[in-house]
Amino acid sequence: xxxxxxxxIGGTKIAGALVDExxxxxxxxxxxxxxxxxxxxxxxxxxxVLDELAAHPAWDALSCLGIACAGPLDTAAGTVSPVNIxxxxxxxxxxxxxxxxxxxxxxxxxxxxDAVAMTAAExxxxxxxxxxxxxxxxxxxxxxxxxxxxxxxxxxxxGNAGHIxxxxxxxxxxxxxxGAPGCVETLASGTAIxxxxxxxxxxxxxxxxxxxxxxxxxxxxxxxRAKAAYERAAQALAAAIAATTALVELDLVxxxxxxxxxxxxxxxxxxxxxxxxxxxxxxxxxxxxxxRLALDAGLVGAAAAASAAVGAQAAQVVAPRP
Length: 322
Fold this sequence. Notes:
Layout: E1 3-9, E2 13-19, E3 25-32, H1 39-54, E4 62-69, E5 73-74, E6 79-80, H2 93-98, E7 110-113, H3 114-125, E8 134-139, E9 143-149, E10 152-153, H4 184-188, H5 190-199, H6 212-220, H7 224-248, E11 252-256, H8 264-277, E12 288-290, H9 297-318
Parallel strand pairs: 1-4, 4-7, 8-11, 11-12
Antiparallel strand pairs: 1-2, 2-3, 5-6, 8-9, 9-10
Helix pairs in contact: 3-9, 5-6, 5-7, 6-7, 7-8
Protein name: Sugar kinase
Family: Belongs to the ROK (NagC/XylR) family.
InterPro entries: ATPase_NBD (IPR043129), ROK (IPR000600), ROK_cs (IPR049874)
């Protein structure tokens, strides 16, 4: 039996798992992320997760180890600089994990961004399974994405390919945290949806959080201001998806994340708006579907990405010379 190790590191939790060849979790462990603590204390939490995984009998069959982490990151250097973990700036996470005493000799952990991990998971077991060219998106507090091209995960040189949230769709739009104007993230993230609705005069019911989920509930109830916020988000997403489709000729778009939980409140205007932007024959009628995997998609995706990377390396080694 092949066993894949996986870590999923985010702003609230550090999770780890051993995953079998079918994508099933043999064991899962979790620690809270001490996100505001010093770098070593954060790494100690990662080490504790690894210690617990290594104590499981299946660890001895480990063939690869994937790490999904919030970005920015640099997969070539093996470093991470998560926005929501201030103490880690260009932190050498891959080398630290590799140095764990139970990491098998010669095994180099494979680092991927959290959205790329979601893409790998959806391509392995979810909505993009069997699809050669797909864009998978996470629309939540921010907007991220990953690409499958030619049937393979395409993380790019530094691991950031598919970062659709930072495509400019409004040249005179609001300034994004990245420094560019009118990024998709400034218009279509959950944060942006809630802010736009509030600016239009919408208020959440007493005792509820004024977030994108509350805006979605209001839109479903017929609130025009809430519906307009989702319409604006859908337009931004449609423009970016159409541009990406024109560039790489997508077969499918998968959307997950908290905002996608709005269902038709997001997907109906998005599909309608696609007709405004996807006008070339080869960009029309690309299916846009919800993600199928939610729980532990980061862990499953980290395992899938690591397995794919190790398989590609092995193929290069055994390939005959021309």
